[in-house]
């Protein structure tokens, strides 16, 4: 709209300048006509050639295009500019020609001659005749023409004098302005943004969107003052800004106020106000958008934020919100957990509260979470309290928007007691496991003393290399400790025997004999006997029985 106003103002200046030039040209033509009449009344033949040259020089120096014709509309002369436009080169070549001999179109020549005839017949000048003209070279122009009847000394019309200005540029500007105004009107009618133009005490323009915004029809709005649409609490603000704007002061063009619709409903509108020139006078151009829904959302958001802050402040779980390397929120539970005051938490570096052993982990997770990548929401870390002591917490972190910016919210649950209990529990478990291991170790090679001379080792289950070695060391230690003379190995509980087990048993027997004790094997089955024979090992000194009972009976009934 401002561009159109500037174009219109420029056009008005150009029109005013053209009118002033035409008035000056008319005065010069009248002076020229008076000189020509004077020459007819008092001719001076000897000075005629020089006078004609002088006259032509004056005519050529005048602005615009100049020509004159006789009563029959035949050209008698012109200035140089007209001769070039007509396509005759110099003024001398125009003499004796009619408009049909020149560059103009046939219909243009007809129009020129018709106007000439009316001026001479009525003996009355015609000014500002707007007419098209095709000039030499094919250029189509527009002319603003003045035509004045010429008289002899008797006052009779003897011809016509014409002048004109090339107004092609002005016509183009006017056409562009008309096109722009038409386009602007179409745009203003079609735009969904309400547009008002306020001048004096009333609106002088409103579009359809403006009618829809406030609920009043156009005819009613054109008789209303802008203040009648504004909520009473906002009228002073609107009036002050309008006054300041007209006074040339710098005020924001855009602001938000409440408006009252026809049905009495209050809405919020976003105003954009500027001063323009409308139909030659200052006016306010106002655009408005309904932002009631947005304002309600903002109010709801503020309420939600207040509830959110209240919930976080009173939460028993420590809650912090972090943006960048600083905390922007910390509740009272965080103060109790960390030992830092609220002011200290909001001014300290985030990493000052994270235990050094966990800084890299927290940095990594935080970076990925801010980028939207999937990372564990919950994990355990240690923080460093104000006293410098490490403290275990259970971290639950999420990405949020806080004050319109990305942030991380973290809830920290104190698990220090639980971690201590876990340490104690683990330590107790280790003791139990060690005891169980020792019990299993003993069960793997159990020893039963029958009397001070006899030790029985009942073997149950599968025997591997580790257990065979344990059996050997246990038996040897027991024989040394109890100084027993007989070792009974009961094989009844062994489900199966292979070469490696048989070999381990033979080696055990040999080790016992080296200590001076005798070895008795009980529970000998055919498969065990066969494996022992296959070894081809020395069985000297080894006594065997098919059952444990037979072996015990033998050692208790005999003296070894």
Secondary-structure topology with pairs:
Layout (H helix, E strand, L loop, with lengths): L1 H40 L6 H14 L3 E6 L4 E4 L1 H7 L19 H17 L3 E9 L5 E12 L5 E10 L1 H23 L3 E6 L2 E5 L1 H7 L3 H4 L13 H12 L7 E7 L5 E13 L2 E10 L1 H22 L4 E6 L2 E5 L1 H7 L3 H6 L11 H12 L7 E7 L5 E13 L2 E10 L1 H29 L3 E2 L4 E7 L4 H18 L3 E8 L5 H16 L3 E5 L3 H9 L7 E3 L3 H10 L3
Parallel strand pairs: 17-18, 18-19, 19-20
Antiparallel strand pairs: 1-2, 1-5, 3-4, 4-5, 6-7, 6-10, 8-9, 9-10, 11-12, 11-15, 13-14, 14-15, 16-17
Describe the structure.
The protein is of the alpha+beta class and 560 residues long. It has 17 helices and 20 strands. A hairpin with a 2-residue loop joins β14 (390-402) and β15 (405-414). The radius of gyration is 60 Å and the shape is elongated. The termini are far apart.
Please tag this protein with its features:
about 550 residues, five-stranded antiparallel β-sheet, 17 helices, about 25% strand, elongated
If strands are numbered along the chain, what order do they take across the biggest sheet? 2-1-5-4-3
- Strand runs, count: 20
Span from first to last CA?
130 Å
Strand content: 25-35%
Radius of gyration: 60 Å
Helical segment tally? 17
Helical residues, percent: 40-55%
Principal-axis shape equals elongated
Largest sheet: 5 strands, antiparallel
Q: Structural class, from secondary structure content?
A: alpha+beta
Mean pLDDT: 83
Residue runs with pLDDT of under 50 for 5 or more positions? 39-48
């Amino acid at each position: 709209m401002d561009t159109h106003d500037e174009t219109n103002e420029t056009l008005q200046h150009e029109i005013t300048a053209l009118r002033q030039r035409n008035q000056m040209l008319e005065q010069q033509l009248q002076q020229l006509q008076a000189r020509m009449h004077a020459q007819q009344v008092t001719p001076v033949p000897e000075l005629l050639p020089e006078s004609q040259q002088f006259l032509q020089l004056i005519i050529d120096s005048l602005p615009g295009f100049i020509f004159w014709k006789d009563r029959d509309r035949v050209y008698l002369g012109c200035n140089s500019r007209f001769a070039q436009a007509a396509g005759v080169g110099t003024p001398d070549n125009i003499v004796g020609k009619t408009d049909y001999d020149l560059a103009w179109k046939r219909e243009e020549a007809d129009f020129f001659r018709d106007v000439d005839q009316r001026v001479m017949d009525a003996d009355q000048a015609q000014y500002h005749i707007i007419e098209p003209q095709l000039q030499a070279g094919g250029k189509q122009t527009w002319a603003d023409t003045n035509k004045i009847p010429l008289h002899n000394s008797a006052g009779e019309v003897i011809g016509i004098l014409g002048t004109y200005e090339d107004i092609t540029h002005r016509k183009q500007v006017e056409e562009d302005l008309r096109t722009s105004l038409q386009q602007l009107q179409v745009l203003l009618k079609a735009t969904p943004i309400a547009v008002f133009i306020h001048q004096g005490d009333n609106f002088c323009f409103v579009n359809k969107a403006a009618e829809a915004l406030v609920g009043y029809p156009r005819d009613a709005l054109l008789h209303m003052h802008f203040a009648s649409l504004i909520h009473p609490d906002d009228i002073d603000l609107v009036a002050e800004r309008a006054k300041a704007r007209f006074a040339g002061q710098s005020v924001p063009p855009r602001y938000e106020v409440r408006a009252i619709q026809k049905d009495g409903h209050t809405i919020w509108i976003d105003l954009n106000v500027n001063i323009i020139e409308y139909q030659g006078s200052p006016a306010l151009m106002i655009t408005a958008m309904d932002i009631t829904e947005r304002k309600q959302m903002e109010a709801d958001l503020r309420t939600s934020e207040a509830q959110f802050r209240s919930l976080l402040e009173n939460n028993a779980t420590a809650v912090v919100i972090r943006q960048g390397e600083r905390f922007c929120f910390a509740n009272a539970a965080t103060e109790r957990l960390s030992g830092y005051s609220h002011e200290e938490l909001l001014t300290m570096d985030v990493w000052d509260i994270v235990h050094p052993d966990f800084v890299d982990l927290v940095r990594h997770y935080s970076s990925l979470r801010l980028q939207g990548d999937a990372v564990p929401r919950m994990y355990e870390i240690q923080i460093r309290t104000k006293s410098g002591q490490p403290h275990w917490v259970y971290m639950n972190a999420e990405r949020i928007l806080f004050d319109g910016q990305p942030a991380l919210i973290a809830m920290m649950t104190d698990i220090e007691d639980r971690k201590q209990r876990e340490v104690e529990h683990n330590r107790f478990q280790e003791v139990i496991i060690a005891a169980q291991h020792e019990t299993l170790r003993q069960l793997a090679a159990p020893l039963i003393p029958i009397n001070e001379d006899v030790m029985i080792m009942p073997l149950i289950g599968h025997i591997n290399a580790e257990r065979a070695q344990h059996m050997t060391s246990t038996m040897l230690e027991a024989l040394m400790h109890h100084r027993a003379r007989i070792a009974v190995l009961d094989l009844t509980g062994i489900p199966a025997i292979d070469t490696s087990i048989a070999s381990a048993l033979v080696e055990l027997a040999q080790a016992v004999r080296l200590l001076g004790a005798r070895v008795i094997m009980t529970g000998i089955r055919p498969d065990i006997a066969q494996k022992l024979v296959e070894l081809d090992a020395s069985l000297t000194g080894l006594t065997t029985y098919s059952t444990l009972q037979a072996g015990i009976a033998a050692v208790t009934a005999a003296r070894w």
